């Protein structure tokens, strides 16, 4: 348990006791915990360590990145399906990822497979080369690469 | 009163949009040429449809009855965990058993790695 978390619990306890209600309430404790998060976030640079909820925040950021990419590429794929003549040019492209650990690569391929327009078909034995089947290689290659870069950046913020 | 009505409307709108997305992905399933592009329509558009429908239901019950259903959120999590694994494995198995890509496909960088060796 990190000292920052203990300090946060202490602030919450103090908050609950100083409120001086007729009996200790959990909701007051929770209010104090939220206030403590705010205080520690402002003060964390004086501890010389990173903010202990940074991973939680970057996970939420990753989730938001994923949802926005999901909506964008869904609209793209739905318009491709509904256009009167199919003008797509599917294909398999190779991508060399800069992520290193197994968890990072797994997360990246999970997110890529979840977003429309791209499926991870194979991961090379070295663990860094992904073969991606894309819905429309010619037109949306750059959009796909930009999407992968976004995901990589967000994942690295969580794991490092 | 009006606050909960707005919530109910937003929830219903989400469910409707999810239904439309689901119908469109069925069109894609019929129209697209090969198993690889069909897997885009089948597994992917349905992720958006499931996300919209389940979160719409969640918002609706939250607004109308003040009921926070954790099970709906868990449903989203488990669909999002299993759908990509299934999609990846179907496509991988199809490619390994040498199902051809559609004629409109332009490039195939995996062919040399996987199939040239075995010939």
**Unreliable spans of chain B:** none
Radius of gyration of chain A: 22 Å
Structural class of chain A: mainly alpha
Total DSSP E strands of chain A: 3
Assign an overall shape of chain A: elongated
Please outline the major beta sheet of chain B.
none
| Biggest beta sheet summary of chain A | 3 strands, antiparallel
Count of DSSP helices of chain A? 5
Oligomerization: heterodimer
Strand content of chain B: under 5%
| Largest interface, counted by CB within 8 Å of the partner chain's CB | A-B, 33 and 41 residues
Q: What is the helix/strand order of chain A?
A: HHHEHEEH
Overall residue-averaged pLDDT value of chain B: 82
As a percent range, the share of helical residues of chain B equals: over 70%
Low-confidence stretches of chain A: none
Distance between the termini of chain A: 19 Å
* Mean pLDDT metric of chain A: 84
Question: How much helicity do the residues of chain A have?
Answer: 55-70%
What does this structure look like?
The complex is a heterodimer of chains A (160) and B (119). Chain A is mainly alpha-helical. Chain A has 5 helices and 3 strands. In chain A, 62% of the residues lie in helices and 11% in strands. Chain A has a 3-stranded antiparallel sheet with strand order 1-3-2. Chain A starts with a helix and ends with a helix. The mean pLDDT of chain A is 84. In chain B, helix 1 (2-31) packs antiparallel against helix 2 (35-65) and helix 2 (35-65) runs antiparallel to helix 3 (70-96). The N and C termini of chain B lie far apart (71 Å). Classes of the chains: A mainly alpha (160), B mainly alpha (119). Chain A binds chain B through residues 70-71, 74, 77-78, 81-82, 86, 88-94, 109-110, 113-122, 124, 131, 133, 135, 137-138, and chain B through 21, 24-25, 27-28, 31-34, 36-37, 39-41, 43-45, 47-48, 51, 80, 83-85, 87-88, 91-92, 95, 101-102, 104-111, 113-114.
């Amino acid at each position: 348990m990190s000292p920052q978390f203990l300090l946060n619990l202490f602030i919450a306890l103090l908050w609950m006791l100083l409120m001086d209600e007729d009996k200790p309430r959990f909701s007051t404790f929770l209010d104090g915990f939220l206030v403590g998060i705010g205080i520690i976030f402002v003060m964390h640079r004086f501890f010389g360590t990173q903010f202990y909820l940074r991973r939680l925040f970057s996970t939420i950021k990753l989730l938001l990145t994923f949802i926005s990419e999901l909506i964008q590429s869904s609209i793209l794929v739905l318009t491709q399906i509904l256009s009167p003549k199919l003008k797509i040019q599917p294909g398999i492209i190779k991508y060399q990822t800069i992520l290193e650990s197994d968890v990072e690569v797994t997360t990246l391929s999970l997110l890529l497979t979840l977003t429309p327009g791209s499926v991870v078909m194979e991961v090379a034995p070295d663990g860094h080369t992904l073969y991606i089947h894309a819905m429309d290689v010619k037109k949306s290659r750059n959009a796909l690469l930009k999407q992968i870069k976004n995901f990589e950046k967000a994942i690295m913020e969580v794991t490092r | 009163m009006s606050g909960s009505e707005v919530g109910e409307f937003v929830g219903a709108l989400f469910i409707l949009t999810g239904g439309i997305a689901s119908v469109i992905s069925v069109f894609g399933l019929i129209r697209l040429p090969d198993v690889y592009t069909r897997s885009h329509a089948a597994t992917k558009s349905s992720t958006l449809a499931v996300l919209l429908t389940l979160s719409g239901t969640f918002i609706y019950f939250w607004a109308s009855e003040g009921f926070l259903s954790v099970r709906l959120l868990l449903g989203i999590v488990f669909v999002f965990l299993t759908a990509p694994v299934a999609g990846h494995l179907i496509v991988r198995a199809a490619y390994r058993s040498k199902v051809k890509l559609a004629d409109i496909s332009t490039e195939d960088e995996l062919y040399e790695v996987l199939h040239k060796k075995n010939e």
